[in-house]
Amino acid sequence: MSIDLQNRILTSKTTDNVNNNVVVAGWVSSIRDHGQLIFIDLRDWEGKVQVVINPEDKEIFEIAKDLGNEYVISVEGKVVERDESLINDKIPTGKIEIEAQKIDLINKSKTIPFPIDTVGRDIDEALRFKYRYIDLRRERLQKIMKARANFILAARNWLSSEGFLEVQTPLLTSTSPEGARDFAVPSRLFPGEFFVLPQAPQQYKQLLMISGVDKYYQIAPCARDEDPRADRHSGVFYQIDVEMSFPTIDKIFASCENLLKDTYVAAAPHKKIMQFPFPRIPFDESIRKYGTDKPDIRYEVEISEITQIVKGNTDFNVFNNAPSVHAIAAPGGAEWTRKEIDEMEALAKREGAKGLAYTKVTESGFDGGVAKFIQDHSQEIIKQVGANVGDLLFFGADKLETACKVLGKVRVAIADKLGLKDPNVLAFAWITEFPMYEMNESTGKVEFGHNPFSLPLGGMKAFEEKDPLKIKTSQYDLAFNGYEILSGSIRNHDPEVLVKAFDVVGYDEQTVIERFGGLYNAFQYGAPSHGGFAIGIDRFLMEIIDEPNIRDVYAFPKSNSGQDLMMGAPSPMNKPDLDILGIELKSKGKKVCESIKTRLEETGFEYEVIEHQAVTTSEEAAQVRGSSIEDGVKAMVLQSKSNPDKFIQVLISASQNVDVDEVSQKLGEDFKICPPELMIEKTGVEVGGVPPFGYILGLSDVYMHESIATKSGQVVFNAGLRTVSIKVDAQGVKQFAKEL
Fold first, then answer.
1. For position 739, what pLDDT does the model report?
2. Measured between alpha carbons, how far is 200 from 488 in angstroms, rounded to an integer?
3. DSSP state of 17
4. Alpha-carbon distance 609 to 587, whole Å?
């Protein structure tokens, strides 16, 4: 008779049931056959417990001998205390074990593709994400899921207790200028027309205030088509979205501060808030002191302006000719080697500086670097910067924004090098008085700096300012340990001010009505003053639980290329489905494939065309081709960081990952992986379909990794499509990869 799971308990409850019979179920974490006894570590959601199988019970002993790791079983048995010499202090159930009386095999398991008894960061992320349901069995990730659930529940409870009403807003809506690309959803009922997924519930939460809701909140999904990075997830992220009627800045800030103070402990109870209430820093001051609008204020290293001290007062033309000169001190940096100083200069150059002047602070003034040019002003500079003997000063000379931005990056590097970031300190700071508008340097046009629905400081009177770049807004952000985790504002609720705000960026009233008609019309019917904020849940959690990458904060994340490797998304749609939606695709991939075949035929190389199902990973490609992954050629497109119009192609064995830093170092120029949508725009080929023939794609620069340069025999690669591969002699690839 099978075990009845009706009375199953979690392993964490077994310690409360010594000398009682219990039923547990879970996964075989490990199994140890000692001949006379078999020991099983059974794992469930709450932890592990040791199960002992005695050979006297031949039936269950035989069942246990056939078990393997990650098999799913249920066990009925008696909880007994271990001998004192056998106690395992490393697990909560280490003082007891279960003497098995029955075992049921619920399900077998194949050999899992990677170990799950480690933190897992050393395992290829693409592999982990493809088998995410296995990866999530990892203790680290289960702790993250629990911390996330605890924090969100605490936030919900707090907001509800404070009178905020939870309201869900639509996921299919119209476009709204939130600063990123929309995800478009085609309409079957209205061919040629599209919904978009909301970048934020911005207009809807304002409409709720106009509807009479006093205080609203929502755990809101926000869809933005942005390039992923370590602190930004691809596709969808989540935020605690909050709005209030008839607020003041002080009320909004107090609500947010108390919300965070009372809820972060649900995820990280051992950490402490540095300053409460949170300090407030105007935007301009933040840029001047920290070089960023999301400063990490856990450490007191700050930027100081010394323009008035050195400009026109030295023989150093770099300082004399610069619009502004700023300095920052690295505590104790006078002991740094030349190599360490050069690393800081390299960082500054990557951020747009022409160089990075420096000098050391001594008892008598300055020594080394640019000391001879500014020695006469050493005491004045030291006092202005707040430097001490033994410090190292770095200087930025450029436009104020550029000089401060560069030194802001240097500031972070100094803190990292000196270990100034206490991971157990939570340093929040409000950044206020943002510019309403900014200049797009590439187009020369004025654009919204932040949320276009924010109320300018002074209302309609603000537009009496002739220079729109000087107009300030009620927009505010919350900086947290060097990240932006919140944005908000007092909203514009006056239709005339709304139209005027958009007029500055070139939208006439009719365009405003067409694009934001719902909100514009609602403003005509008694709109209260209102404002609020949105906290980025994922980024906040990433920092407070000490995760280096935001992707593992999600149960089912997208990869660093924006793909769902487990579900195979995005994926092509069948033509009949596209026809229903009235969509016709234009693909360059087929032409690329034909061009490759033509070129190989012209040069006499024999080749084999392999048609297969669409693949997204090298492992999948090898499987459907029936070839070794080592025989695959992976072709990646990289984009220059300093010259966005420059692209190169990297060829590497499909069994290896591209080391972008290594490529950058060898080529003497910093590159990054080209974003998928930009690569498609540049080459016409989807990620996963890029062939190793750069010249066909218009990429004349090709970097060939040694794994390809030394390759012999047959190789295989995707030929412009994720559904077509070509097998050819490696010499064919090496000969024509760079051909022009």
1. 54
2. 12
3. -
4. 19
Distance CA 468, CA 691 (A): 48
d(CA 664, CA 669): 5
**AA identity, residue 432:** T
Q: According to the model, what pLDDT value does residue 740 have?
A: 40
**Which tokens hold the place of 640?**
């220059």
pLDDT of residue 587: 67
List beta partners, residue 431.
281, 477
Q: How far apart are CA 697 and CA 420, in angstroms?
A: 47
Q: What is the pLDDT of residue 682?
A: 77
282-305 exposure pattern, b = at least 16 Cβ within 10 A, e = fewer: ebeebbbbbbbbbbbbbbebbbbb
pTM of the model: 0.79
Q: Which helix or strand (DSSP H or E) is residue 597 part of?
A: helix 589-602
Question: Cβ atoms within 10 A of the Cβ of 400, count?
Answer: 18
Q: Write out 37-57 in H/E/C secondary structure.
A: CEEEEEEECCEEEEEEECCCC
Contact 535, 240 (CB under 8 A): yes
pLDDT for position 177? 62
Using an 8 Å Cβ cutoff, are 362 and 287 in contact? no
CA dist., res. 437 & res. 460, Å (int): 15
DSSP 571: -
Q: In angstroms, rounded to a whole number, what is the distance separating the alpha carbons of residues 611 and 628?
A: 17
Q: Give exposure, 592-611, as e/b (b: 16+ Cβ within 10 Å).
A: bbebbbebbeeeeeebeebe
The encoded tokens of residue 516 equal 């934001």
The phi, psi pair for 543, rounded to 5°, reads -75, -45
Answer whether 24's CB lies under 8 Å from 44's CB. yes
Q: Which two tokens stand for residue 92?
A: 């909560």
3-state SS class at 479: strand
In this structure, which amino acid lies at residue 291? G
List the chain residues with pLDDT less than 50. Answer: 740
307-321 pLDDT, tens digit each? 999 998 988 999 999
pLDDT tens-place string over residues 408-419? 999 999 999 999
Tokens of 224: 């933005």
